[in-house]
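F.,

This is the one I mentioned.
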């Protein structure tokens, strides 16, 4: 059974860098073709694609967020990491990690973690 779990701080100050980890169990993140999508949902808004990392290490970014987003992975720990720099209150959201045969999937990931609420506030 494939499971994804997000972890990281629940509170980040404005202008700081948000760093989240997605731990995958039940499947190697190097097995593919397959993609791990970071998506988020702010209160009252639709799911938004943030970025994705493929089984082969290729990365993909949402154009509006690309300048501030960095994706990485640790294959020894089967983990993926999202870093979002220079955060503002607009980045307050529930952040999810999802697994899909398609990069950029939002609401239709095969697997998805429970999500982590991140609030940007001083």
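My design for it:
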């Amino acid at each position: 059974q494939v499971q994804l779990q997000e972890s990281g701080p629940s509170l980040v100050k404005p202008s700081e860098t948000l760093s989240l980890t997605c731990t995958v169990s039940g499947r190697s993140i190097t097995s593919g073709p397959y993609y791990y999508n970071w998506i988020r949902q702010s209160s009252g808004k639709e799911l938004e694609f943030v970025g994705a990392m493929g089984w082969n290490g290729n990365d993909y970014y949402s154009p509006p967020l690309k300048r501030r987003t960095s994706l990485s992975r640790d294959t020894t720990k089967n983990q993926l990491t999202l870093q979002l720099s220079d955060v503002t209150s607009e980045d307050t959201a529930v952040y999810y990690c999802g697994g899909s045969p398609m990069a950029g999937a939002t609401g239709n990931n095969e697997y998805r973690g429970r999500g982590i609420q991140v609030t940007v506030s001083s």
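The chain is about 0% helix and 50% strand.

Talk soon.
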